[in-house]
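Why does residue order matter? Because the sequence determines the fold. Keep that principle in mind as you read this record.
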Amino acid sequence: MQLEQLTSVEKAFFELSGVDKMNTRMPYITVDNFPQLGLLTSLRFLEWVSENPDGVISLPTGKTPEHFIKWTGFILENWNQKKVKAIREKYHLLAKDKPELSNLHFVQIDEFYPISSKQANSFFYYVNKFYIDGFGLDRKKTLLINSDAIPLFKGAHFSEVFPDSTVDLSLRFRECKSELEHMQQQSIFMMDHWCTEYETKIRELGGIGFFLGGIGPDGHIAFNTRGSDHYSTTRLTSTNFETQAVAAGDLGGIEISRNRLVITIGLETITYNPDATAIIIAAGEAKAQVVKDSLENEPSNVFPATVLHKLKNGRFYTTTSAAAFLTDSVDKYYQTGEWTQEKSERAVINLCKRLDKYGHHLVLDELKTDRYCKLIPGLNENTVQSVIDSISVKIDKGLLTESNQVFYHTGPHHDDIMLGILPHINRQLRDASNEFHFAVLTSGFTAVTNSFVINSLKSTKQFLEINKIQMVEYADFFDVGYKYKWDKDVSHYLNKVAEMDKPGMERGLCHRMVRAIVEIYNIKNKEELRDTINEILVILKKSYDGEKNPPKIQRLKGMIREFEEELVWAHFGVQVKNLHHLRLGFYTGDIFTEQPERSRDVIPILEQLRKFKPTVISLALDPEGSGPDTHYKVLQAIAEAVRLWGKEEDLSNLRIWGYRNVWYRFHPAESDVIVPVSLNALAVLNNSFTDCYMSQVNASFPSYMLDGKFSKLTQKIWVEQLKDLQLLLGKDFFYQNESPKVLASHGLLFFKEMNVQNFIAHARDLEKSMEGIEI
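Structure:
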């Protein structure tokens, strides 16, 4: 790509990116962090608007455009202020007059169907709040997808036509079997006609002039999922599992998103205008593979974003980590900077996988002809063996038994610690000289569905009615009694697990529900307890799926998750007093979450470090933009607490264990410690997850990588990691190993061990990749 093809703003960012070659099928620009991605996008948008003041724009929804929205508002509001003038000058936004957005035409990209436009989790609500009102667009010049207003058979509302919110598209081509199906069929035909009219209106405007979109885990843009026709137009359609899993958080669970259709503009809609500026933004290493697929493959229905190759103004804007898998980036990784053992390990392991060949079968010529192995200094017949030896050392570290240590295991959410590092913790728990503390740093209420709480409250009412929650009969229960014997709830529940008594387990949960409600609502007697339960049920039944709950119900959901965490670690003899529920305040459940604050979010962690004086701290160590942003924010809060603690104590012997779980994984070369995982450990993982995480068993908020509960995905990851290293080490390394633990390996977990200095440096690098310039 020639630099001359870029606009003034794009050239400014490109020159700062450090990219010196571009061998992709479409131009891309990289920036260091998520907020800078928003800045680049905002400046390019305003540059385009200044040149096309009455053009047609189409902008995305969700969390992806957070910083685009913030930067655009900030720049427009402070156009002539010193800071914004400096930004405009630095990044070559040449427009002297502030762009006027009110003359623009706006096209909504997509929407769930059916969904009420009044719901805050509808895209209609989002574009009205953040774009039409937020940017001051003219409502008369908008094309919006208002599900409440789309005409249906005989003027009926979608709640009448599709009473269970399920739209059966097979009615397009099959015979109706009832009057209701006839109404539904005719309504579907009317919606199809509405979609055609929507498409026609867009084309009458000349097509979309400026399109901005994110990209999904399957590579979808708008709701054009993997396999979409490049000539597709606006339509009512279904989605795939990956898209449904991502949407589950918006809609209140996979049970809802699985049954929702979508209305989306098509790939041809986006590219209809040959002069269109179409930009895909991607942040985080979790998007690196779909970015590579979209930029390096020929146009294909399997990779929807490849449709943009035909546009001369098609672009990808990404963070550096989102571009990490591009051949350009991989070349730069190997060809610049000091050569390290990690580079050697990565190159050899990847060659084994590419050739599907065991390490000891590789020959020197294969290394010499490999794009990256040939760069290994002093490459010779012993190179592969040196990599095998260094990986073996990592496995030896994973076999070590710790003693006389104080462990402070932290998780952003409930289940993160278990899914990240359980087998290793379990082994250390067997040594009585070790002391253990488990801290979950957020409430985790967003992971509990309304339906789970409703069912649990109904059971609680039933147990109260038949006097099966006898603690409420004690005279002091509603004053102080509810505060005691929380360990007894845990013991009662796990006894019923052992007895395989499902009703008994449910009763154990209801005991804890009662304690939580009494604490949260300051209940004083049984009648007030029953009334409060009924009030909560009314609120939840009136709530739409995905609606933000009132604070007290959020707290109740969080306390359910806390009980679940207590159950898990009680399996291994850990008492409730050694579990710490910090409920950091930045976790609010809003679409754009707050940043951690020192007094609110850092000091509680620091106080625990001072109190327990851990020798080992474990934490989630995900790369930028991978997994929930809660992981990053918790990491920064812990890093700041450790930094402050380091001013008071000598932390030269403190070790930090960084783990990953279902959201992202380490390459073997990145990890420092490799832990063998036995079939017994996998059984413990799955059984304890299933028995204890009651609200998570149905996987209402799954990963897009597996349609099932997180423990099964964790097992899948650990097994795949074993297979990767079996290629390098050979299967006989495991089944003939003298160590019983290695011999019993049927999975491997990886983690990174750091000292305080390295951890703080890593956290600062991650902070730079996430936070950028302050607005």
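The CA atoms of residues 80 and 643 lie 39 Å apart.
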